[in-house]
């Protein structure tokens, strides 16, 4: 083994095959399956000798190679030879290799685009504007999905990290979801009929409290005590749910 | 301030308003809709002003640029600033994407909506974790379910993907390289490095 390449340099069995084909200067349109299979197998054996776990995906493709090889090697029936349009057993593999190669190469151009973008920076929206955004039409339709909630939660946590003081004193103060739910219910009368998650978190000083608040509203939403909506600025808006009117 | 007389002066005025608004909006950027609603000018007037502004920034005298990714316009620092920025803020981390992430993203972008199994079929390796990572980074999202047995999730790229790859729309994706199309012409040129 003159030159050792490790398996994790490859993105998968197809990548490995493309590497072998390029290395042995094989013609991909007229693949010598037995050479490729032999090379591939050598490779996997070398990996095993190094006690590297040979991933099952590589073995699956080995089976494919073996199957194609056996089909190519087996003498054809007279009948089959007459059938001029018989499919080349290699065709599917070649098509897959070619398609994979397309994406493998286009990924390079994509990487350039991504890299260039990563050199440009924006700045967060001006803080004052963030507060204007809270004044919202109270008639907005209320609904939202999980993805939106996650984004909105991230927004609140980001904001919390901004207001974090430089020095922190820790005092253990535990708050259960049940207690928090009661607190929220008590506050409902003083809050406007449509209120935001930020408003609920006004009295939160640490991440744990925000999370407990979040769990509480999730639970309240589950019990239809609250309905929520997430707007384009990732703000969560709540309204009293149907449970209050029953 | 909202009298509608379009003098030369006012045109440059539109540009200043745009510049100010884009500055305030920051990373979130603004869409043409936002601008039309806010500024009381029609879309083509604003588009012209945006182009002027963009050209103005493109000049050497400016360190920021006006970009248009997906539906949003935003101001960003020019790439060459990053050298200095990384000196100033030594902790700037450039998130990179691994080769497998790039491959999975490319496949989704070109073939969306697409199921996990279809992606795996092309790459020959599982990508369950990768899809979850990309989803967590907001680059892809679920787009309903396929009619195939088991009704698997379909995936598509997000507006954040367009931003991350500097695209206005998916039509701007680089052209897929063609291999072995048509005749079989030699072997080496298929793999020229």
Oligomer: heterodimer
Cα distance spanning the termini of chain B:
60 Å
Largest interface: A-B, 49 and 59 residues
The N- and C-terminal alpha carbons of chain A lie at a distance of: 77 Å
Share of helix of chain A, binned: 40-55%
Record the strand order, biggest sheet of chain A: 1-3-2
Would you count the extended β strands of chain B for me? 6
Rounded to the nearest angstrom, the radius of gyration of chain A is 31 Å
Biggest sheet descriptor of chain A: 3 strands, antiparallel
Q: Give the spatial strand order of the biggest sheet of chain B.
A: 1-3-2
Summary keywords:
heterodimer; A: 246 residues; mainly alpha; Arc Repressor Mutant, subunit A; 2 domains; 3-stranded antiparallel beta sheet; 10 helices; 54% helix; 5% strand; B: 193 residues; alpha+beta; 8 helices; 6 strands; 14% strand; disordered C terminus
Description:
The complex is a heterodimer of chains A (246) and B (193). Chain A is mainly alpha-helical. Chain A folds into two domains: 112 residues, no CATH class; 119 residues, Orthogonal Bundle (Arc Repressor Mutant, subunit A). Chain A has ten helices and three strands. A three-stranded antiparallel sheet of chain A has the order 1-3-2. The model of chain A has no long low-confidence stretch (mean pLDDT 77). Chain B has two domains: 81 residues, Arc Repressor Mutant, subunit A; 74 residues, Winged helix-like DNA-binding domain superfamily/Winged helix DNA-binding domain (Arc Repressor Mutant, subunit A, Orthogonal Bundle), CATH 1.10.10.10. In chain B, the strands form two sheets. Chain B has a three-stranded antiparallel sheet with strand order 1-3-2. Chain B has eight helices and six strands, in the order αβααββααβααββα. With 193 residues, chain B is an alpha+beta fold. The C terminus of chain B is likely disordered.
């Amino acid at each position: 083994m003159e030159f050792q390449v490790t398996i994790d340099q490859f993105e998968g069995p197809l990548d490995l095959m493309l590497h072998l084909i390029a290395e042995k200067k094989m013609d991909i349109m007229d693949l010598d399956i037995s050479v490729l299979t032999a090379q591939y197998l050598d490779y996997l054996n070398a990996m095993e000798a190094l006690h590297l776990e040979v991933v099952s995906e590589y073995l699956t493709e080995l089976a494919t190679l073996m199957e194609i090889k056996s089909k190519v090697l087996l003498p054809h029936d007279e009948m089959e030879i007459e059938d001029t349009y018989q499919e080349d057993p290699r065709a599917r593999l070649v098509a897959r290799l070619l398609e994979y190669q397309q994406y493998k190469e286009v990924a390079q151009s994509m990487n350039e685009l991504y890299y260039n973008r990563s050199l440009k920076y924006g700045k967060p929206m001006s803080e004052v504007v963030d507060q204007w955004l809270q004044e919202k039409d109270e008639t907005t339709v209320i609904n939202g999905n999980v993805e939106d909630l996650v984004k909105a939660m991230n927004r609140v946590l980001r904001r919390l990290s901004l207001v974090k003081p430089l020095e922190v004193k820790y005092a253990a103060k535990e708050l259960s979801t049940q207690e928090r739910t009661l607190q929220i219910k008590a506050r409902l009368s003083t809050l406007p009929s449509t209120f935001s998650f930020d408003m609920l978190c006004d009295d939160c000083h640490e991440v744990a409290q925000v999370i407990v608040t979040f769990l509480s509203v999730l639970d309240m939403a589950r019990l239809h005590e609250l309905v929520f909506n997430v707007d384009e600025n990732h703000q969560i808006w709540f309204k009293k749910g149907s449970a209050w009117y029953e | 301030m909202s009298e509608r007389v379009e003098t030369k002066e006012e045109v440059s005025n539109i540009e200043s308003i745009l510049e100010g608004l884009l500055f305030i909006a920051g990373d979130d950027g603004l869409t043409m809709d936002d601008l039309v609603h806010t500024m009381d000018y029609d879309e083509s007037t604003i588009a012209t002003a945006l182009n002027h502004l963009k050209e103005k920034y493109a000049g050497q005298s400016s360190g920021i640029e006006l970009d248009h990714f997906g539906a949003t316009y935003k101001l960003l620092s020019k790439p060459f600033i990053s050298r200095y920025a990384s000196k100033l803020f030594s902790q700037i981390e450039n998130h990179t994407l691994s080769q497998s992430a790039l491959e999975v993203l490319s496949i989704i972008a070109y073939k969306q909506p697409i199921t996990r199994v279809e992606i795996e079929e092309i790459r020959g390796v599982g990508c369950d974790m990768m899809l979850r990572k990309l989803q967590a980074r907001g680059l892809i999202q679920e787009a309903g379910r396929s009619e195939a047995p088991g009704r698997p999730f379909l995936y598509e790229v997000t507006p954040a993907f367009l931003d991350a790859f500097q695209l206005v729309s998916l039509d701007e994706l680089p052209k897929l390289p063609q291999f072995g199309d048509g005749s079989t012409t030699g072997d080496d040129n298929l793999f020229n490095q």
